[in-house]
Structure formats: C-alpha cells, structure tokens
Amino acid sequence: MKAHESGRRSRRLPVSATDRKALAQWQPADPATIAAAVRLKEAALVEFGMESSAIAGWIYSKCAHQIPTTAIDTAAVMAAGDGSCLLLFNPDFFVELGLEGVKFVLFHEARHLIQRHLFTEPELREDPVFDTAIECTINHVALTRLRRDDLPVFNGEPTGVDPRKIFKNYHADLTAQGLSPFSYEEFIRTDMGCYTELHRMKHPPSPPPLCVHELLEELQEELADAETIERIGNEVLANVLLAGRRGMRAARSELLDLIERTDGATDRLAKLWDQMGAGMIRGQTQKTRRVDWWQRWLVDVLASKLAEGERLIYPKKRGAVLAALGEDPTLSRRGPERHRVVAIAVDASGSMPAAVVDWVASLVGQLDGVKAHWLSFDAAVVPFAPGDPLVGGGGTSFQAVADYLEGRAPSVKTGEPFDETLDAVIMVTDGIAAPITPAEPDKWIWLITERGDDWPENHTPQMACHKVRTGDR
Fold first, then answer.
1. Within a 10 A sphere around the Cβ of 57, how many other Cβ atoms?
2. Among 28, 50, 213, 410, who pairs with 76 as Cys (CB 3.0-4.6 Å)?
3. At 364, which helix (H) or strand (E)?
4. pLDDT tens-place string over residues 19-35
5. What is the DSSP letter of 443?
C-alpha cells in the first residue's frame, strides 16, 4: 500500500501514533457518535468470532488498544514498534458505513496484516502491482465471505479496489494485445496468479488505488514493525489452525481458502504452511515433514519452562557489613548461568514410535545449555541413550518415574539416587496407568500417543498435555 497524490488532506497524523491518550483526545467526535461507532465495532467483532472470520476475530483479540479517533480518516490496524497492536477507527467513518460496512473494513484490515506477514519478500511488497493484486484478492474474498454484492460506499464512493473493475481493465488490455486473458475465476484464484496476470498487461495498474484505510507513509517504519507482524501473524494462524482441527467449520473454511490463495507463492511460504501442519487441514500428508503440530506445541511449552532467569543471591557476609554501616541490603549475581536439566521418560510398555523419540532427541540437542537425562520405564525406570532399544518387562507406573526423579528410588543401574534439580520432565507415553501428582506438576509435559489416555489434561492440578500422531502422519 503506497502513498499517492490525491485531493485529500495530508495523511500525516496530527499527533504521535503511539500516544494513545493524544489520539483519543484529538478533536474528539460527538460522544453519541463515538458510542455508536464503538457499538458497531463490537458487533462486527462478535460476528467475526461467531461465523464470519476466525482470522479477523483472532487479529482483533490481539489488538490490546482499540481507539476511536478523528486523527485518522478511516481505519487502520497498526503494528507499533513497541510490540503492541492497535486498531484506530474514525467514529464518523464507521457510523456512515453501518455494521456491514464496518465488517468489510475490519476484515480487509485483518487480511492485510496476515498477508503482509505471509509475503515477506521485499521485491514483492515494494512492487505496486503486487499491492494491486493483494487488494483485488482480499476484496474478492471479503465480498464472498461477507456475502456482499458491492464494496461499501463512503461519501458517495466505493471504499476500496473493486476486483471486477480491475479484471475488466485487465481483460481489455490483454485482448487489445492479442493475448488470451484468464477467466475471472482463474484471475482471482491466487494472489500470485493475479499478480502474474496483471504483469502481462501493457499498462498494469500502478500506482495502486487508495486502500480502504490510510497507511501513513511518513510513519511506515514506526508503525509497521516486522517482528510484531510476524509474531501476531504466527499466533493468529496457529490459533485458527487449532480451531479448524477441533471442528470449527468457519475457521477450517477460511484457513483452507488462505492456503489455496497463497499456494505456490514462495518456497518460504510453502515451508511455513508445512511447519504449521496445515496439510492435515487439507487432508494431505507429507512424509518428509519435520515439524508437526504437537512438535510446535512442545517447543513452545518447553521454551516457557526453560526461560532464562537471573540467579540472584544475598551475600551474607557482605550483607552483614552493609547492615552494620546502615546501608540497605543488596542482591548480587553469582557465577555463570547453570545448564538447564531436562528428563525425558519414554514408556517402554507400549509401542512407542521411534520417530517421536528421535525428534524429541533432536529437539533437546538443538537447545543450548540443556542437559538431558533419558529414561525408559514400565514398572521400573532404566536410563538409556537415544538410539538404544527401550527396555521393559511389563506393567506401567508413572509413580516409579516420579519416585526416581524426586530422589526417593535409586537407579536400577547404579544404585544411586537422582540428585539434580529438574527444569522440565517430558513424558512420552500412552497415558494408560494410574494417575499421579508430581511434586512439581508445572514442570511436567505429557506427550500422549494415539488412542492414549490424556488424563493429565483434566487432572488437578492440570499439567501440560498434548496427543501426538504416530507413524508417518
């Protein structure tokens, strides 16, 4: 979305874009208009959450600040440099649009944020023809999903790019050149397909028409924080993917549409969908896929349990001297950061897939400063190394693992008790055994294999738990 010359006033904000108080207080609209605009915005977001757009619903749940302000003419979702996400909307603009128009604008903005995250290649985002292609495909999807025949009208004019008009110009241009144009359905099917076809025109639309909102060129670096966009984009897509897998039809349908619309765009994008496990939503399995949904979950949970912490101590002797001198006691750092210690216990009583064990081993191997203790268990606990066969003689006891790791039972190999402080315990099991409550349940992560019992999910206290797929799926 590029700035362009027009008869409208300068798009430079009259106040700082990160000063939320100043934004809200800038020449405020009539209180009744603000209240009406807020009601329209809230009603639109409720409908997104219920049926219209899972992606838009999740996007706006990430916008901690939703500010009615006359400092902007229309509306914008802004990823600010401080890591926050803001929704700014002009109350008069929203009130004139009405509920259906507000839904269209918010849907458009949400898709722009997500698709900017997906298409990170600078040569694409800096090409005005690509901007036009994205405008076309987003508005086509908005018209279809929101069941509209036309773009919303504001001040007597459509609020964005009409994909049908762009297609009409494209069709006429290629026909005049003696070339064969695509049908509308082919033209609009994917973002990259639309982009490619627009480049076949002798006079492609450039610069792109004004977007539905005003993206401020002067503040672009401040407001378009790439790290925030990527983080929010990943969080939203992961949430929508999970909702789709749980049977939410709107989420599944919208995610499928987005996957198809970005199909074949770049190798990076193909890998992104692959890593998120989107193939399951499409009913496809890629045997070479390295990262599955449970793997993403484990990485996130394990990372949270291995977060760096400052090792602060109270120096007794120095503290006593300071106290005698009337000084306040102080804390100080001591020594280098210790290695984090993780125990991985693999159930030897059932058919534990080697692929799961191998991947967990590779994951732990990639985490800097992590020391791993590998255990196989049934009714007893036996230390082992990744790649060794699992040793088990029958029966399953989670309590045996807890007793060993908490120092109550010695090792069957050395006769020595386990005497290290653990940062996390990963249990790879079918979950079929008597439930336990470890001494530190918040450190335990349960990977339950297919057709297993995920009782830790509903245990009191609840523990981190996820079912994993086995085989090549």
1. 26
2. 213
3. helix 354-366
4. 778 888 888 889 999 99
5. G
Whether 370 shows a pLDDT value over 90: the answer reads no
pTM: 0.56
Helix (H) / strand (E) element for 345: namely strand 340-347
Q: Above 80 in pLDDT, residue 213?
A: no
Task: Report the DSSP pairing between strands 370-377 and 340-347.
Answer: parallel
**What percent of the chain is predicted at pLDDT more than 90?**
22
DSSP assignment of 280-336 equals HHHT---TT----HHHHHHHHHHHHHT-----EE--HHHHHHHHHTTPPP--EE-SS
3-state secondary structure of 199: helix
> What domains are defined for the chain?
20-232 (no CATH), 338-468 (3.40.50.410)
CA distance 277 to 259: 12
> Which residues are registered as beta bridge partners of 65?
86
Q: Which two tokens stand for residue 409?
A: 């039972």
Question: Torsions phi, psi of 99, nearest 5?
Answer: -60, -50
Mean pLDDT of the chain: 77
